[in-house]
Amino acid sequence: xxxxxxxxxxxxxxxxxxxxxxxxxxxxxxxxxxxxxxxxxxxxxxxxxxxxxxxxxxxxxxxxxxxxxxxxxxxxxxxxxxxxxxxxxxxxxxxxxxxxxxxxxxxxxxxxxxxxxxxx
Length: 120
What we know:
Helix content is 77%, strand content 0%. By secondary structure, it is mostly helical.
């Protein structure tokens, strides 16, 4: 079965789930973080599926790889922000664990995708 759209990619679908989970986690953050950590985490989460989608439509393997790396970088940023939020005592532990697990899975998938692109 060939993929006809980025929407068929499991990593893109899981990235959308991650966005929803990050929004759910950050809605419990202190109000004074609305323009700080909350906003930054949400932008990073949204960046992941957005870059996967954009890269898939660029037309070259080199461009696709570049955008997958950008998505991976946004994931690393989000990972750091999750650590910071935990150290600050922000958010719900159960919601945070869901985000961490999803992000870990997505990062492994992005890593595998870039490796496969390098091989082909």
